[in-house]
């Protein structure tokens, strides 16, 4: 009887995408798992793309935030989803390429448990300071910090910006305490209130506060500036080009085992969404630089950064928070 049912399904063309390896044409809601709380750059990118993909697929695309352990909780959850294209995972640079070197068990393997679909955006981290420090630029901050070794503090909400902060300490010779946060939102609240002195984040989270004069943009940790913070110097402009070699990226991945044709279709649709003028304009306004790629290009970048961060993590003696 089972053989007859299977034969009928084949003849009627109703075999599931996983079995038939057909292109992705969703007939039910699709989920994007974001391994961080609402309010940050990963969440903003996912929600903007969810709106566009809903239009493309004529199916609702839902953003599900699963925060914890600097991105490990949500990423591990996404890795265990059915490999059918209906669950996309927001692939964050820190979770995919830094966490594996600082956690004994992240709950996932960034290479074996996922298939990269496309890079989404690429942008620099930015270091911001509370106006209470009374510094106007990076040079003034470094001079101040060296008179108070170990007394000033900086916050971050993921391993990527934390590693950037530790690299900053190593290159400039500044000694600061690190304060870990589960999301950018709580950290920004604390730096605005003066509970911590600095915060390392993506431009999306802090640009409105810098423009309003509530925070001071000290430096962009990347080779390029972003339109939302035109007056904040790049690492090279600030005199530390070595701090601009590893910009932050966000991308999208699916669980291992997802059929190749499904991955191909997802790549085409996500690329189309990222290149849409209205989407690109919204991302630019948040300081997120749309940067779609092929699955192969994104996989190579993940592996390259995974290799590069290993020595950086060891040198910075980065620990799990």
List the defining traits of the structure above.
single chain; 321 residues; alpha/beta; D-Maltodextrin-Binding Protein, domain 2; 2 domains; five-stranded mixed β-sheet; 12 helices; globular
Protein model, in words:
There is one protein chain. This protein is α/β, with parallel strands linked by helices and 321 residues long. The chain folds into 2 domains: 24-123 and 248-316, 3-Layer(aba) Sandwich (D-Maltodextrin-Binding Protein, domain 2); 125-244, D-Maltodextrin-Binding Protein, domain 2 (3-Layer(aba) Sandwich), CATH 3.40.190. 43% of the residues lie in helices and 18% in strands. It contains 12 helices and 10 strands. The protein has helices spanning 2-12, 17-20, 41-57, 72-79, 93-102, 138-145, 159-172, 184-193, 203-211, 260-275, 277-285, 295-316, and strands spanning 30-34, 61-65, 87-92, 114-123, 125-129, 153-156, 177-180, 198-201, 216-221, 248-255. The strands form 2 sheets. The protein has a 5-stranded mixed beta sheet, with helices on both faces. It has a 5-stranded mixed beta sheet with strand order 7-6-8-5-9, sandwiched between helices. Strand 6, helix 7 (159-172) and strand 7 (177-180) form a beta-alpha-beta unit. Helix 3 (41-57) packs across helix 10 (260-275) and helix 5 packs across helix 7 (159-172). The protein is globular. The termini are far apart. Mean pLDDT is 90; it is low at 1-20.
């Amino acid at each position: 009887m089972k053989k007859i049912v299977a034969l009928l399904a084949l003849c009627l063309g109703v075999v599931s995408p996983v079995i038939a390896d057909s292109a992705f044409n969703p007939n039910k809601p699709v989920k994007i798992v974001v391994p961080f709380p609402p309010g940050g750059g990963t969440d903003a990118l996912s929600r903007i793309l969810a709106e566009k993909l809903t239009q493309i697929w004529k199916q609702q695309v839902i953003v599900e935030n699963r925060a914890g352990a600097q991105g490990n909780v949500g990423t591990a959850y996404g890795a265990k989803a059915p490999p059918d294209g209906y669950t996309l995972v927001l692939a964050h640079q820190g979770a995919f390429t830094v966490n594996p070197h600082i956690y004994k068990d992240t709950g996932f393997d960034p290479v074996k448990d996922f298939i990269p679909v496309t890079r989404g955006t690429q942008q620099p981290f930015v270091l911001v300071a509370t106006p209470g420090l009374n510094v106007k630029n990076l040079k003034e901050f470094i001079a101040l910090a060296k008179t108070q070794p170990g007394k000033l503090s900086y916050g971050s909400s993921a391993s990527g910006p934390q590693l950037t902060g530790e690299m900053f300490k190593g290159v400039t010779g500044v000694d600061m305490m690190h304060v870990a946060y589960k999301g950018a939102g709580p950290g920004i609240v604390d730096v605005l209130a003066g509970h911590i002195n600095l915060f390392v984040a993506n431009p999306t989270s802090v640009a409105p506060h810098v423009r309003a004069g509530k925070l001071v943009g000290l430096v962009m940790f990347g080779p390029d500036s972003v339109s939302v913070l035109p007056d904040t110097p790049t690492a090279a402009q600030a005199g530390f080009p070595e701090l601009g070699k590893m910009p932050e990226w966000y991308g999208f991945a699916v669980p291992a085992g997802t059929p190749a044709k499904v991955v191909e279709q997802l790549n085409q649709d996500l690329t189309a969404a990222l290149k849409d003028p209205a989407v690109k304009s919204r991302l630019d306004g948040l300081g997120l630089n749309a940067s779609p790629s092929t699955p192969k290009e994104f996989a190579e970048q993940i592996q390259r950064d995974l290799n590069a961060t290993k020595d950086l993590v060891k040198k910075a003696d980065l620990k799990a928070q």
